[in-house]
Amino acid sequence: MPEGPSILILKEKVQQFKGKTVVEATCNNRSLDVSLLTDKPIIDFKSWGKHFLICFPDLTARIHMMMFGTYRINSHTAKPPRLGLRFSDDTELNFYACQLQLITEPLDDIYDWQADVMSDEWDSRKAIKKMKAEPELLACDALMDQHIFSGVGNIIKNEALFNARIHPESLIAALPPKKLREMIKEAVKYAFQFLEQKKAGTLKRNWQAYHKKECPRDHVPFIRKDTGRSHRTSFYCEVCMKLYE
């Protein structure tokens, strides 16, 4: 599943379409009325965590890549796209295996931009307040909660917890304030490292915990376990990552 940094890369790549008018729109599962997009100019592209937003004058097309979503710029596959946009200069933008939704409300009424870890508006104090409202929340679940850490996925979760030396099943209420702030700092820090490494093609080779078998600090086997309410896989070291209960 693409995480926040990958959506930012997508947003950078599609800037060539800003200001262009859609002359043809298609949807292979009729999940949205594409006639509402035809003959409309794209006025902006935005992102909120894992949500990619194509902004038109009176509505927004929201795209969520889910687990296996992909896109093509000025090319297409043999399979019809979930959403295909064509422009008068023969350029095209295609999305596959994604979830679509049309938004007619103002985006500021829907999205908390301060929850996006890669936004200039990110507010760590607000994240702390949200976590403290759920004292039984586990660290692994807190980081994966898009209302608290929008854009954080399983890769960022694992790397941030390893860097902060926090066991994924630690209770948020049991974390010392300094450690809670460290977890937040590492999540945001790694999100931007993810972005740069993804652009450079070096993301996987720099993983310290995600899909690794041995702790690089203690040289003992990592525990691999589906943790928390999301049951997403965590990779952790029982020697250097402390369990706060």
From TrEMBL:
> What's in the keyword line of the UniProt record?
DNA damage, DNA repair, DNA-binding, Endonuclease, Glycosidase, Hydrolase, Lyase, Multifunctional enzyme, Nuclease
Write the protein's name: Endonuclease
* One Gene Ontology term from the biological process aspect of the record: base-excision repair
Q: Which InterPro entries match?
A: FPG_cat, FPG_N, H2TH_FPG, Ribosomal_uS13-like_H2TH
Which Pfam families does the entry mention?
A: Fapy_DNA_glyco (PF01149), H2TH (PF06831)
**GO molecular-function terms, A-Z:** damaged DNA binding; DNA-(apurinic or apyrimidinic site) endonuclease activity; lyase activity; oxidized purine nucleobase lesion DNA N-glycosylase activity; zinc ion binding
Describe the reaction catalysed, as an equation: Hydrolysis of DNA containing ring-opened 7-methylguanine residues, releasing 2,6-diamino-4-hydroxy-5-(N-methyl)formamidopyrimidine
- Look up and give the organism this protein is from: Mucilaginibacter conchicola
Q: Where is the Formamidopyrimidine-DNA glycosylase catalytic domain?
A: 2-94
Q: Which family does it belong to?
A: Belongs to the FPG family.
